[in-house]
């Protein structure tokens, strides 16, 4: 995507200024942001020695030889230990990753390497995840939309139908995340992220909170889709069954927490709501093709970085 394309992703951006907070002010964070599921930025929370390329190589060298790493479409899922000597984990993150209050996965950190111009298309994160996204190197421009003013999604999916969404009437924040900054993005918040720096390295910590989500349209949608998947698990491919068994890293308890209030009526009405939307997919085909191209380009760069590290380690 060119910079011009990225400015076309929003129309009428009536964005507010996102609040920021000191990463050591845990009391305010948990009371005013975590408990109410509202986003907040922590400026200059941590630092990684060296330039973007050096940090990228150091992380890739570890990822290349660690069997526990999972390669995802645009990032790597890794264990906390993998990043411990690269940067200090901010205290609000450590406090949030508490097994008493959150379902945690082993690979609870995602690592992103994106070159300038890359755009992560509009979506919200699956598995009911809260995300702490730290800009370790480079700079990214974020646009986020609250789950109570949702954007149109692909049927049964977390990705959005269109990229040029009108943001009129939506609760939206637009902000730059610069080196050392971290955003707390609560579950179900829509986001669109444009890589501004030449080479951008991000780490995010992810967790599924045990508390019930704030009552928003998207929270209800997620619970209903999950309930439907669970009820029809016998007819689902093994990948879906595996996902449900390991949902948010905790399986059954996490699944039960989210779906406990879903009734048969709500489940059936969800099917109708999603199916009614399906003709829109035809209108979205040009956007889908553009998105797929962007994502594939991002993936190629990600895999290329890893292959370079693997080749260097073989040669050594
Ligand atoms: O950094 C990006 O490009 C996307 C980040 C994202 O989608 C996330 O942290 O959930
Ligand atoms: Fe995301």
UniProtKB/TrEMBL annotation:
Q: May I ask which residue range the UniProt record assigns to the signal sequence?
A: none
Report the Gene3D superfamilies cross-referenced here.
Answer: Cupin (2.60.120.650)
- By its UniProt entry, which Pfam families does this protein fall under? JmjC_2
InterPro entries from the entry? JmjC_dom
Can you give the residue ranges of the JmjC domain?
69-224
Protein name in the entry: Probable protein associating with small stress protein PASS1
Q: Which organism is it from?
A: Rhodopirellula baltica (strain DSM 10527 / NCIMB 13988 / SH1)
Lineage here is: Bacteria, Pseudomonadati, Planctomycetota, Planctomycetia, Pirellulales
């Amino acid at each position: 995507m060119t910079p011009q394309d990225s400015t076309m992703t929003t129309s009428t951006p009536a964005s507010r200024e996102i609040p920021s907070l000191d990463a050591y002010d845990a009391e305010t964070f948990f009371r005013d942001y975590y408990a109410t599921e509202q986003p907040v930025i922590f400026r200059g929370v941590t630092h990684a020695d060296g330039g973007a390329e050096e940090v990228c190589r150091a992380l890739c060298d570890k990822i290349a030889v660690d069997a526990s790493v999972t390669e995802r479409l645009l990032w790597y899922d890794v264990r906390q230990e993998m990043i411990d000597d690269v940067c200090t984990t901010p205290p609000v993150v450590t406090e949030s990753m508490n097994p008493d209050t959150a379902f945690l996965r082993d690979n609870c950190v995602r690592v992103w390497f994106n070159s300038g111009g890359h755009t992560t298309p509009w979506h919200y994160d699956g598995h009911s995840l809260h995300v702490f996204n730290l800009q370790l190197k480079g700079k990214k421009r974020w646009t986020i939309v609250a789950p109570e003013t949702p954007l149109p999604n692909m049927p049964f999916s977390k990705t959005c139908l269109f990229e040029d969404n009108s943001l009129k009437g939506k609760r939206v924040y637009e902000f730059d995340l610069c080196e050392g900054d971290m955003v707390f993005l609560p579950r179900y918040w829509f986001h669109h992220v444009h890589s501004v720096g030449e080479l951008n390295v991000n780490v995010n910590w992810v967790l599924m909170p045990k508390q019930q989500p704030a009552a928003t349209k998207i929270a209800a949608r997620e619970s209903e889709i999950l309930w439907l998947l669970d009820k029809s698990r016998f007819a689902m491919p093994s990948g879906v069954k595996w996902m449900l068994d390991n949902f948010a890293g905790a399986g059954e308890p996490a699944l039960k927490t989210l779906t406990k209030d879903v009734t048969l009526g709500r489940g059936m009405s969800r099917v109708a709501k999603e199916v009614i939307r399906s003709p829109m997919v035809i209108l979205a085909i040009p956007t889908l093709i553009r998105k797929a191209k962007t994502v594939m380009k991002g993936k190629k760069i990600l895999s290329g970085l890893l292959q370079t590290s693997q080749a260097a380690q073989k040669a050594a």
